[in-house]
Write a structure and sequence with these properties.
By secondary structure, this protein is of the alpha/beta class. It contains 13 helices and 14 strands. It binds NADP nicotinamide-adenine-dinucleotide phosphate (NAP). The site of NADP nicotinamide-adenine-dinucleotide phosphate has 28 residues, from helix 1.
């Protein structure tokens, strides 16, 4: 039986794609969309019911009003809904596009983005805890390489995030097919590395020195030595539509993990923030168990070390116990000099204050350009 209840908190661009894929792939799943904006929820739910009916599928989808800034009320609702799987699809409005422009050209990484993710992600986890549902399968979409270990450093349990490093795996398989002619289904890649590598490999075809570990198998035989990685990564630089237009990749990550969890398949994939670990890992997804499936010769400690080193390329120097985020000198100096944002580290009490300040300073900087 797979009549599980999936609660999607937040009805934005990614969760809309998740709903579209999940209703088609797992029609027995009951989906509840919890959101602030009921008008938008009604429109989406009706669209899904009509479009699935056209395909002969009877979808089980409903909506619920929820604002996770109001933790007490949201927790009462969440407890009543009693979901098996809870997905954080929320994010605050923020000047994403301007940020891309200001960071990529300067090779700074993405670290300060965490200020636009962590405040709401923390409210999400506080809500889950207040509802007494921390034993459910919990997925966080928000920058999981960094957000999940921060939440873990505050003793919150979170199962996994999605995407990021998983987005270079199909690119690498396509590159291998181009070089060797192998069928994609015969290739298995086990890759350890963080969010920075997704951006640098996918969009500039190189690692810029960011550490990783990788094993390539063809028909289950190790063929890693047959490849020149610089050449492989160059071939991974494939154009996709920018920003939210490519969010169906993230939705696919999420639906694949939900489906594997429900059916207990041991599906092999990659994800960031697995069990609150920093960076990204290859893993198998079972019900109630996410099991790392690392390259031969790489221990869990090695993988964590590689990922911690990778976070620095993304602008995160370290995450300290109790949710203290320390930014790298490079990103700290850049933001201080260019937009007068003076923030070397941030504690949970200041997450929302610093988020607001960063938004204001970025918005002002965009106006100057
Ligand atoms: N890992 C990956 O590969 C990957 C890829 C893409 C995106 N993402 C992440 O996925 C997340 C969602 O992205 P998106 O593009 O879908 O964002 P989006 O379109 O801006 O949607 C965010 C949603 O969050 C809701 N929200 C904000 N505050 C809330 C609150 N207090 N209570 C309840 N809902 C609230 C918003 O609701 P309202 O409509 O009421 O404002 C909005 O619907 C982001 O964290 C993004 O970084 C990850």
């Amino acid at each position: 039986m797979n009549d599980k209840v999936v609660l999607l908190v937040g009805l934005g661009n990614v969760s809309k794609h998740i709903i579209d894929f999940l209703t088609r792939m797992e029609p027995n799943v009951k989906i509840i969309v919890a959101t602030r904006n009921i008008e938008k929820a009604i429109e989406k739910v009706n669209e899904v019911k009509i479009s699935t009916a056209i395909l002969g599928i009877s979808s089980n989808i409903s909506y619920y009003q929820m604002d996770i800034n109001n933790i007490e009320d949201a927790a009462k609702s969440m407890k009543k809904l009693d979901p098996d799987i809870i997905v954080n699809c929320t994010v605050n409005n923020n000047p994403h596009k301007a940020l891309n422009h200001l960071t990529f050209s300067n090779d700074l990484g993405y670290g300060h983005f965490v200020l636009w993710q962590i405040g709401l992600a923390l409210n999400f986890m506080k809500t889950v805890r207040a509802a007494g549902l921390e034993d459910r399968f919990i997925i966080n979409l928000s920058y999981g390489d960094v957000v999940n270990p921060i939440l873990k450093s505050m003793d919150y349990h979170i199962d996994t995030a999605i995407g990021n490093i998983n987005h270079i795996i199909p690119r690498m398989k396509m590159a291998i097919k181009k070089i060797k002619g192998y069928e994609l289904s015969d290739i298995k890649i086990k890759f350890v590395g963080g969010h920075y590598l997704d951006l640098s490999i996918s969009y500039s075809g190189q690692t810029n020195g960011c550490p990783y570990a990788c094993q390539i198998l063809y028909k289950n035989i190790d063929v890693t030595e047959d490849f020149e990685f610089d050449q492989l990564f160059k071939l991974c630089n494939l154009k996709v539509a920018p920003g939210k237009e490519h969010n169906q990749m993230a939705a696919s990550d999420c639906v694949a993990i939900i489906s594997a969890y429900i059916h207990n398949t041991g599906f092999f994939t990659h994800a960031p923030g697995v069990n609150g670990l920093p960076g990204g890992y290859p893993l198998k997804v079972y019900k109630h168990k996410l099991s790392l499936d690392l390259p031969d010769g790489i221990t869990k400690e090695d993988a964590i070390y590689i990922n911690q080193a990778g976070l620095k390329y993304d602008g995160i120097e370290k995450i300290e116990k109790g949710g203290v985020i320390v930014f790298s000198d490079k990103i700290y100096e850049y933001l201080k000099t260019n937009i007068s944002f003076d923030c070397k580290y941030v504690t949970p009490d200041d997450y929302l204050i610093k988020e607001q300040e960063l938004t204001e300073k970025f918005t002002k900087a965009i106006g100057r350009q």
